[in-house]
Amino acid sequence: MQDFSEDLAFEERAAAVNLFPAERRIVQHLLGISPYELGVMTSSDLSERSGASRSSIDRLSRKLGYPGLKEMRKALLAQEGRRHEGSRPAEGKPEGPGEIAQRVMLAIAARAEAMGRLLADHPEIGRLTDWLAGARNISLFGAGESAAICNAIYMRLVRLGLPISFAEEHHTQVTLASLMGPGDVALAISYSGATRSTLWAAQVARQNGARLVGISGAPASALARQADLSLHLPTGAGLPGSAEVLDRVVAVGLAEALFQCLVNRDPQLLANSMKIDDTFGDARA
């Protein structure tokens, strides 16, 4: 493995060594994608997109002074974060509340756009829609802030008349998982993909024959490996200290995406939601 100064930029490292054609393609691809795609990219993804072998990726990582792709990705994301910091107003000229608010909303919009591309480019959302529409029972599992995402999905899909349940207390989640079986769908949500209580409920549901859907920001996590279907949040550089928050905002948007996919598949479900709207409308009159 090459010995470079820790703060030497990725591009400077690549320029300092002799690269094979396959390695140059990898470098060009890594420099040409968004931080959000980079955040969820695996060696298999990079191999497929760049046309280079996984051994070429490993060799390039070592040439550039990184133990592997994971560390190379982290360095690129950190570099992007430093560039973002460099674009902020100079010392003594702090941003006003309006500029800060605009920057936050633009970061949310960029992350949402990346999530939209991921959903459009892969068939998982269609499979999930089919599973939810035909499920005997649907249960949601998540802890902490991921429980807020579960609650958002629950509140949207229960309006369609789907047999969906969510309990925030984790022992109750395991209880619900214990009652699941074939024909049921379990949605487990964890940013890290490693939350112990969520993994416990997910494992119990799958052992009982339910289909397990994992939603996380870590494509190689324990939850992703365990799931029958996995959706990855487009993690990546964003505002300082905000990566998990931005991902969770986008994950809440997934609730509306699922709602619209389901009503497009079965208009009768939309009729159920309209009936609820009419009920609340009568109460306001």
From TrEMBL:
HTH rpiR-type domain segment(s): 6-83
Sequence ranges assigned to domain SIS in this UniProt record: 128-285
Keyword check for Flavoprotein: no
GO biological process terms on file: carbohydrate derivative metabolic process
Tagged with keyword Plastid: no
Listed PANTHER family: GLUCOKINASE, HTH-TYPE TRANSCRIPTIONAL REGULATOR HEXR-RELATED
Name of the protein in question: Transcriptional regulator, RpiR family
Gene source species: Faunimonas pinastri
